[in-house]
Amino acid sequence: MIGWGFRAAGVPGAVARKVVIGVIGGQRPPPERREHAEAVGRLVAQAGAVLVCGGLGGVMEDACRGAKSAGGLTVGILPGADRAEANPFVDVAVVTGMGTARNVIVVRTADALVAVDGSFGTLSEIAHALDQGKRVISLGSWDLAAAGVDPARILTARTPEEAVRLALAEASRGQP
């Protein structure tokens, strides 16, 4: 465990806040991307970070499964109002009843984001992240350079290890 966390500098008795890595992606990814999502989740947990996602199936479930296999903490921000919608690997299910508007909460909660595969919901999360000045690490997700997005704002990773390394570095960028 690397033990990533932000220090609560100057606050007597304060506990360091854990880094939160968001994993975003589609509900029906191909098998290779499912394996990538699970590996990302496992590596996030091994680094001592918390995993946040949309809490449903596909990439979200695979990432949570990976995190749980390494003893990590998982948070699912659910679109509906029923805690039972969460995949079985979510520790903390946040019910919103907000539909896809919950994507903003996932993005705002994360210190850094890894996008694995993905469809239009993932694209909206990427857009929200970029709008908030957050860079996104893409592991086989949307290629937005052709749409005019500055390539420096979406970092491309070739492996789960590289994706998590970049996400942890991004999370610490600009933090105390």
SSE topology:
Elements: E1 5-6, E2 17-18, E3 20-25, H1 31-46, E4 50-53, H2 59-69, E5 74-78, E6 92-95, H3 102-109, E7 112-116, H4 120-131, E8 136-139, E9 154-156, H5 160-172
Parallel strand pairs: 3-4, 3-7, 4-5, 5-6, 7-8, 8-9
Antiparallel strand pairs: 1-2
Helix pairs in contact: 1-2, 1-5, 3-4
Description of the structure:
The protein contains 5 helices and 9 strands; from the N terminus they run E-E-E-H-E-H-E-E-H-E-H-E-E-H. Helix 1 packs across helix 5. Strands 6-5-4-3-7-8-9 form a 7-stranded parallel beta sheet, sandwiched between helices. A two-stranded antiparallel sheet has the order 1-2. Helix 1 links the parallel strand 3 and strand 4. It has a single domain, classed as 3-Layer(aba) Sandwich (Rossmann fold). It has 176 residues and is an alpha/beta fold. The protein is globular and about 40 Å long. 34% of the residues lie in helices and 20% in strands.
Query: What is the strand tally?
Result: 9
The largest β sheet comes out as: 7 strands, parallel
CATH class group = Alpha Beta
Report the end-to-end length measured between terminal Cα atoms: 21 Å
- Could you spell the SSE succession in H and E letters? EEEHEHEEHEHEEH
Features of this protein?
176 residues, alpha/beta, Rossmann fold, seven-stranded parallel beta sheet, two-stranded antiparallel ribbon, 5 helices, globular
Brief summary:
The protein has 176 residues and is α/β, with parallel strands linked by helices. The chain is 34% helix and 20% strand. The chain has a single domain, classed as Rossmann fold (3-Layer(aba) Sandwich).
